[in-house]
Amino acid sequence: MKISVCIPTYNQAAYIGLTIRSVMVQTLLPDEIIVSDDCSTDNTLEILEKLAAEISILTIIRQQSNKGIAGNTDACLRAATGDYIVKLDSDDALLPDYIKTLSALLTEHPQAGYAHAAVREIDHNGHAGEPRRLLRGAGFVTSEDALRSALKGYRVAANILMFRKEALEKVDYIQCTQDFAEDYFLSVCIAKAGYGNVYSPKILSAYRVWTDQGNVRKRRKLAEINGLNAVLSNAITPAFEQRAWDLNPVLRAKQHFAITHSGCLSWKVYNKEEKRELENAILKLSSAPATKFFIWSHKNGFGKVLEVYQNSAATIKRHIKKLILTRPQTR
């Protein structure tokens, strides 16, 4: 069984070396590591060339023009020759048993299109934070259950996955044109194609969490909303139609996401034209009366009241999830 590790990167000189070395200390080493550099403007390429001289299984792809997140990731995955393919972001890291554990799960569950696991958050300095686990049992879920759960969002602890190459080939890799939620889109396409997925609650990787310096994350809100719309309209809806399932749950999911993201209309980081563009994107996601009410409220100064309610509800959900995940397991 041949295993590849794919690492798409852009301007991650500070972390790319650590990421690659985390692969090289696996208890089960991969057959190849492929790094696709999307025209980095820092010294990422220089670091990669030095590592390639040292690590024989490391191959570097240098994109001729900037392809963006989706395009660069797609190119990196397509270059892999392994039966199992790990997709790893260039600021994250694998713990030593990642490949051994997840490759065994994929072998045990031939209908799983990908395997994933719990992660440990780390900050920009590498200091350990909270664990991230899913509120689901360990093991395999069917494609049908995966599609239904996708209505609630991207159901992984973090976007560090081991794919079955056969599943990637069947869906023709990443077909999403958006540079946000392309990973979520791919997971839905794999479920639509009839593959389930398998999950381990063990912490097998480190996921870097960044603070929103300079409101960078807030400035990406339009891309986030458009990405969600692409997933729900172009991936989940066709999957439900293919199975002749009721589409009302999809419409409710669209409304939920539209309401959740409507709060950006009260943010001061946007000017009037940008807010108009955001509002149009939200309405494209859902034009239900409830969505329009939340849009009106945020535009007319009532957003703080709604945010207090939504944040309180989210906090309660997080506490309940933490209690469930940390309670002693009974037989």
What report would you give on this structure?
The chain has 331 residues and is an alpha/beta fold. It has helices spanning 16-24, 44-54, 68-79, 98-108, 143-149, 165-170, 182-192, 216-219, 221-242, 248-261, 272-285, 289-299, 303-326; strands at 3-9, 32-37, 58-62, 84-87, 93-94, 112-122, 128-132, 139-141, 161-164, 196-208. It folds into 2 domains: 3-208, Alpha-Beta Complex (Spore Coat Polysaccharide Biosynthesis Protein SpsA, Chain A), CATH 3.90.550; 213-326, no CATH class. Strands 1, 2, 3, 4, 5, 6, 7, 8, 9 and 10 form a 10-stranded mixed β-sheet that branches. α1 links the parallel β1 (3-9) and β2 (32-37). α7 (182-192) packs parallel to α9 (221-242), α9 (221-242) runs antiparallel to α10 (248-261) and α9 runs parallel beside α11 (272-285). The radius of gyration is 20 Å and the shape is globular. It starts with a strand and ends in a 5-residue tail after the last helix. Residues 4-169 form the Glycosyltransferase 2-like domain.
Task: Kindly summarize this structure in a few lines.
The chain is α/β, with parallel strands linked by helices and 331 residues long. It has helices at residues 16-24, 44-54, 68-79, 98-108, 143-149, 165-170, 182-192, 216-219, 221-242, 248-261, 272-285, 289-299, 303-326, and strands spanning 3-9, 32-37, 58-62, 84-87, 93-94, 112-122, 128-132, 139-141, 161-164, 196-208.
Q: Count every helix, treating DSSP H or I runs of 4 or more residues as helices.
A: 13
Q: Using the coordinates above, name the CATH class of the largest domain.
A: Alpha Beta
Radius of gyration: 20 Å
Low-confidence stretches: none
Structural class, judged by helices and strands?
Answer: alpha/beta
Question: Got a strand count?
Answer: 10
CATH architecture of the largest domain: Alpha-Beta Complex
CATH topology of the largest domain: Spore Coat Polysaccharide Biosynthesis Protein SpsA, Chain A
Q: What summary fits the major beta sheet?
A: 10 strands, mixed
Mean pLDDT: 92
